[in-house]
Amino acid sequence: MEIGIGRATLWGTWKTGRRLADEVEFRVLIARNGGNSAAIAVADLQGLWPSTSLLLREHLARCIGTSPDNVGIFTTQNHGVPVESNGVFDPGLLAAALERAAGAALSNSTRAEWGLVATRTEAPSIFCRRVPIEGMGKLTCWYGLETSETGRADCTALVSNALRNLESRELQQQRCLEWDTVVQRSSIDLHRTYLPPAKDDLIQCVFFREVGSQRPLGAFLRFAAHPATSNLRGANWHSGDYPVYACRYLEQHFGGVALFGTGPCGDQCPLIGRKGIKLSERIGNQIAKAAIADLPKLRWESEGPLLVESPSICVHVRDAFKLESASVERQLNCIREIHQSRHFSINQFKRMSDTHETLANVATQARLEDTGIDPRHCSNGSYSHPHFVLRLGAVAFAGLSGEPFGAYSTRLRNETLRDNLIVLEEANGYIGYVPTDDEFGQGGYEVNASWVAKGVEQKIVAAVKKSITELMTIE
Fold this sequence. Notes:
51% of the residues are buried. The chain has an eight-stranded mixed beta sheet. A four-stranded mixed beta sheet has the order 17-20-21-23. Strands 2-14 form a two-stranded parallel ribbon. It has eleven helices and 24 strands. The protein is 30% helix and 24% strand. The chain has helices spanning 50-64, 91-108, 156-167, 241-253, 277-293, 325-338, 346-363, 366-371, 407-415, 445-449, 456-472; strands at residues 2-9, 19-20, 25-33, 36-43, 71-75, 110-119, 127-128, 130-133, 137-140, 146-147, 153-154, 203-210, 216-223, 237-238, 257-262, 268-269, 306-309, 312-316, 382-386, 388-392, 395-399, 403-404, 421-424, 433-434. It is globular and about 75 Å long. It is α+β, with helices and mostly antiparallel strands. Helix 4 (241-253) crosses helix 5.
């Protein structure tokens, strides 16, 4: 097995007046075994449209002489740069950066051995950002959190403010607290409220080194938390967020070139009080340090199959996102006319707010803006997207579409390879939030913004499990 890892800057692929605080790059891992080649490419971007990602996938496949199905294009979901929309990124410059990174990986390619670390931080480093409120479903908490004495994410002030807004008949749900916000206390007695534990808090890192010399080639680090720590409002910088600092730490303390893959984190986040570069560095270092600490326990392997499948999975569109504009506007106007009525309990008003937010997403075509997909025009009310499953010896990578919730990872690991399965998000393009089936009907930002219909969990899990099982049975 030969492994090569390369990198190339993405700075300059979009126009901006801000400075670059650290790095924003394309990083590529290329594996070759006999006549078979496969690649994982990760961009330090918030997301790429599927149409863009699939063009980049074809371009990288040509560069390394393999099938597009053997290539996975990923983004870290880095909030420190713009999201793709019409004209933001120069596609030619993106392709050129990817080609440079692939060229560097090919030039560095050598016979390699690898080993997997699976660990967790000592103190909680990740939380579920969806808070259950009795009788109301769930509220989303982005940032403005406090740290309790035991290291828990205290969201009491944020939730109290959000509930007070609902009591005041504000249709827009509040999800964050700036430091200068005057907290409006709700009449509901919350006691002390904390973010729930994350469903997936696992840190996984595959280390690579040259056979014989044991020279470090690099590492692939995976963690499932929103990279949304550096995008301070009004900042004059762009950043790669905490994944860049995790990679720096690995490169300094192990060697070679490190890649970061974000695990499914549609409902997961770090403890974010005040955003900034220092927070990004602290979180990145914390994650990478935990991986490095387990290096002495690592078992190296140098032989094993290199196999890939890219199962195309068909998901259905939610009914609300199939509605024509006139119908959406009528329903929105109806809600706006009646929402000030005091005849509604706060529980009823929360559900009305969820409906309003869903319809507003349809009306503004927000998903078309950040995915390039218009759900209303999906053929037969469904959309097919190529996922990505790669086997590297005893380890497998499973790339899921969009922003799935954290429970996807734990379910897939528990039902297949346990910690030897590395589950990633935003495979081959961003399609939006992908909740688990039990979250539909709970409301909150992520569910209200998602255009995929209930039943998506079973479709994705079944297809990915099938690919994993098939690949792992081949000797």
